[in-house]
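Message: I would value a second opinion on how I read folds in token form. Give me a protein, with the fold worked out from its sequence. Write it directly below this note and I will take it from there.
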Amino acid sequence: MYSYEDRIRAVRLYIRLGKRTAATIRQLGYSIKKALKSWHQKYEQGHDLPMCYVRSRPKYSDELNHRCYGYRRIRAALGRQHVFISEKVVQRLMRQECLVVSAPKRRRYGSYQGEISPAPENLINRDFQTATPNEK
């Protein structure tokens, strides 16, 4: 996969050489004929490639969002700005920008409720002893 800078450099070289793919590929040193044409088409439509447009937006910094913006929320915010990209692209960008969402720490189950207290005193002087079962 080529980085954004590599793609922009390839497209600008392609335009400078008169849109000749063979000369561009020869000068770049790697074969990307179909990719070069699609990059050029996207570049001509928006005068930039889509990945740069997303990265030029204000970065969701850890200080502003308290590390609570996940990929779904960032994708929704970009969608409100009319930038429509897939969830996987957002996840990849978050990985590259080192944006990590802090998840709450899971608590383990524990049934311990403290020490067992002694039985209360017999304040009303009831007789709990019987001679035979099921009498009282």
